[in-house]
Amino acid sequence: MNVALEKPSLWQRIRPVFQGFDMPLLVITLVMCGIGLVTMYSVGYDSGTRFGDQSRNVMLAFAVMFGIAQIPPQRLMTLAIPLYTLGVVLLLLVATPHVGITKKGATRWLNVGMVIQPSEVLKLAMPLMLAWWFQRREGQLRMVDFLVAGGLLLLPVGLIIKQPDLGTAMLVLSAGLYVIFFAGLSWRLIIPVVLVGAMAITGIVTYEERLCQPDVAWIGLHEYQKNRVCTLLDPTTDPLGKGFHIIQGMIAIGSGGVFGKGFMQGTQTHLEFIPERTTDFVFAAFSEEQGLVGCLVLIVGFLALIVRGLMIAAQAPTLFSRLLAGALSLSFFTYAFVNMGMVSGILPVVGVPLPFISYGGTAMVTLGLALGMLMSIARSRGLMQR
Fold it and tell me: pTM here?
């Protein structure tokens, strides 16, 4: 009788909340956050409160991840249309004269009681929306369905490019393309696009000297975007101006050698030769102090995260969950590849943070949302198996 009336313990009451969490994904996330905080302490200890603020951002990201993980994928699917619609409406408001806020020549922000950047909403709303669309068309996919998906993708991407914000547009575009690819887009349509892109890059590299003349305008690109590409091809043309970021980043990476200069010992970093060393160019600072070995550890961490995410996608119970998990997993690859590539001098400089490592509240919250969705999909698989 006493046993029957005994109150459940605190752990017994909260244990259901933690059931089904994907432990490999959680461990990888904890390790990567640990690397990020150690790096931020080293490169940002003389930059005010960066380490303390980033610690708060990490805790906020975990809280967001934990909260989103409690929402089943079926409920996440109902958020697709409202989030996508909200994002597009906010982008249209940004593009409206005298409504959007302009900083440094770009109109990307909106004041809704607080200043927000609506394009951030589309980083997650886009794969949600397209996964919802293909879920609705499951079993009866036609070419017109892929065309509709392309229209849903290109509308916000075009608005973001117009701001201009090529970096965010690239991230939103890639997230949408991953969904379309996983939905079954034919290789016969993918290969020609890849070939055209390869030919365009080859042409730019081959005729770089002629194309980069000041009087040559590039169709579809702003002047500063043209300058970024030309600076990438030959940063020595303006070593103290447009090429300074790339040159200093490559010097820092190269000076790290195999084992690095050691924790808090980076000279390029702490003598302030590396611009934005706690945000966009944090990989250069990390490479200088940790060397090739540290970079390999970081890359293995990202690969483990991506592979685990794809495993969750492969075992997901519904098409919506599979498409969403697959797109989110490969989005981590896009973030890491673009950031490391621009710092290393193989891609143009764009404002793309390095997940877990770069300083930023918005970036960490977005990361927490994406990881929470993966956790939600993993939990739904585990609960269904029970």
Answer: 0.89
